[in-house]
Amino acid sequence: SVKPITGKNGPRASFASRQYQRESFEQAPMYVAVMTYLGFGIVTLFGYLRDFLRAVGLEKCHLAQERDEQKDFVPLYQDFENFYTRNLYMRVRDNWNRPVCSLPGPVFDLMERVSDDYNWTFRFTGRTIHNAINMGSYNYLGFAENNADFLKTVADITHQYGVGVCSTRQEIGNLSIHEELEELVASFLGVESTMTFGMGFATNSMNIPALVGKGCLILSDELNHTSLILGARLSGATIRVFKHNNMHSLEKMLREAVCSGQPRTHRPWKKILIMVEGIYSMEGSVVQLPEIVALKKKYKAYLYLDEAHSIGAVGASGRGVTELFDVNPADVDVMMGTFTKSFGAAGGYIAGKKELVDYLRSHSHSAVYASAMSPPVTEQIIRAMKCILGKDGGREGIRRIRQLAENTRYFRARLKEMGFIIYGNDDSPVVPILLYMPGKVAAFAREMLERKIGVVVVGFPATPISEARARFCLSAAHTRAMLDQVLHHLNEVGDALCLKFSQRKYSPRPDLYEETDFELDS
């Protein structure tokens, strides 16, 4: 016989259990790993050979070099540190930094460029690649748009305030629309207070040092974003890294921190801060929020949640992972998010209790020294958030949230059917397709561009050396026809480059098995 899993917390635990079971991290066959390391080994050997040819003058050296009169100085950088860049990255450099010459919406235009010296320099051909499907931008809800009717309020604010503030908010840069935005964000998130910043990266890197310092302990997920890592390092706090989404690893570190205290002195830590992300931008995985909240309460720690990729993108009304798991926002001590993805703007926010936000207003470097957010950017965020909340009198916001969820599930299911290995949660609009081998990374990006599809490929050091991938970002602005076109070309390229490494068999109708989870009676 069978019975539904309810767990000790009832239906909420059952829902959380389903979410984790819907995450996939399939391992590639052993031969793929062997070929990947062999590929890097061959490229590295050729790199040393080319360095030797440059040293003896048989190959032209394109590198910036020290002048003769500076030879006796300590070198600005060690030559070996640049080995990867000049011998590996330079071979595939044409797949990054492509100049876009249109709105980066669901389709965009790219300026064609070629290289005559193996990617050391580029020249424009004067031609434009029109209407390439954009599968790389974080335009989750499609608010990166240029519809004049939608942007009327942004244009009005630009006429009223201009495009720049030229001051910090603590001096004469605090505008009424900044305060309106903060009240709106607090209402949207269900928290007491919020504070906004002009740059998403700095929201993490400049605020974490204001929250913790020497004598504090940071427990950081091993896949956290660079902005979180930089903020942790700048804080001066002790940093310990736990395995990705591994509650056993986290609890072990928490128990040890509480029992042993600080090194040498064994005094209690001043603060213990757990740092996690809502959706991890390279894996597409979703944080195990209910379990982390339970652990932070058990061990009297604080929780810092980065919702850069999850706010607006998940949850029935776009309120992020707290809504996805039905977790009380008050249980998250510091909620952080950005406006650069789902809201089609720029900047970020810190949200939580009023005491927290008031403290940051006077202690955060990003608050005290950074210029205030640009007025048209502020209005764009207000416009998008009102659309999501339905305060503009329509249901366009909810329609976009549902469309994004539908596109995400459809795209992920089709990729699994084709035989690709993809990472992450079925609800995550970040979809990594594993490519593994260095040669396939460059070939994949070039083949997709030939088919007028813009993709983002990522390799070492942004990912583990054996897990290079292409990262697709779904958008509510993508139509089913666009997705079908992308999937058609993916199927062809996957066959041509032998990228279908999955050994699992997937049902063509996975939604039939998502209503209830079951377990056998013991």
Structural class: alpha/beta
Largest sheet, in brief, is: 7 strands, mixed
Within the largest sheet, what's the order of strands? 5-11-10-9-8-6-7
Tally of extended strands? 17
Tell me the number of helical segments per DSSP (H or I, 4 or more residues long): 17
Task: Report how far the terminal alpha carbons are from each other.
Answer: 9 Å
From the alpha carbons, calculate the radius of gyration and give it in angstroms: 25 Å
Shape, per Cα inertia axes: globular
Query: Share of helix among residues?
Result: 25-40%
Mean pLDDT: 89
Q: Would you state the CATH class of the largest domain?
A: Alpha Beta
Architecture of the largest domain, according to CATH? 3-Layer(aba) Sandwich
CATH superfamily of the largest domain: Type I PLP-dependent aspartate aminotransferase-like (Major domain)
Which spans of ≥5 residues are poorly predicted at pLDDT below 50?
A: 1-11, 510-522
Helices and strands, with pairings:
Blueprint lengths: L1 E3 L6 H11 L1 E2 L5 H26 L27 H5 L19 E8 L8 E12 L17 H10 L14 H14 L3 E5 L2 H6 L2 H4 L5 E5 L4 H10 L2 E5 L4 H14 L11 E6 L11 H10 L3 E5 L14 H4 L9 E5 L9 E5 L1 H10 L1 H4 L6 H15 L6 H23 L5 E2 L4 E7 L1 H13 L2 E2 L1 E3 L9 E6 L6 H17 L21 E3 L2
Parallel strand pairs: 4-14, 6-7, 6-8, 8-9, 9-10
Antiparallel strand pairs: 1-17, 2-12, 3-4, 5-11, 10-11, 13-16, 15-16
Helix pairs in contact: 4-14, 5-14, 14-15, 15-17
GO cellular component, one term: endoplasmic reticulum membrane
Cofactor: pyridoxal 5'-phosphate
Protein name: serine C-palmitoyltransferase
